[in-house]
Amino acid sequence: MELTVRYAKRDELERVNELRRAVSELHANGRPDIFRPGFGGDFSERVYSAFDEEDTDVIAAVCGGTDQGDVSRGKVSAADFQSARQALPWVGEEELALTNISYIIVGAEADLSEALGLILSDHEMSPSATVWLTQDAGALLDACEDPAARLAVLEEQGVEAPTVVMVLAALKTDGQVELPVLSLADGRLEPAGQAVWEEKV
After folding, report:
1. pLDDT tens per residue, range 86-106
2. Which end of the chain has fewer CB within 10 Å, C or N?
């Protein structure tokens, strides 16, 4: 098998999104307590804005074909995808993935330490994501059209939320952490004070 890793072309971005949608569904099906189902809005547009940014590249791994364009990121042949990926000259270097979590909204019944521990152990997820609390995360997210955009606005307005690392550190040292609480008003997320989350024993 010949695997070419190269800069993606704009007309390939919809296919890139198909792959991202599949990964998103895999996450949501495997851990519905952490990941929200559905793929669209800002999340699906992110690959296009990344493509247009001067200091960001969208990299594609392509099997076979002859029109591979700029192959400056590498080209290898191997028996399977995993072997080909490991043989790339830049494997092991830090990469930026489009799978990124900026905000984590947890429900009152979640196992916070376990969920955040999984995020911390996955290098494609962000330990700098902020953590928010609500009574029923699934219901809240289903009723809100664009939670990520609203949370970005709240942060710009000065509502502070601790990061994954900060929350885990507080739980480890103090057994509790103070989290901002979210509620829903007129279809959008609103701050509803603070609550202390205590580690479940």
Report:
1. 666 555 444 444 455 678 888
2. C
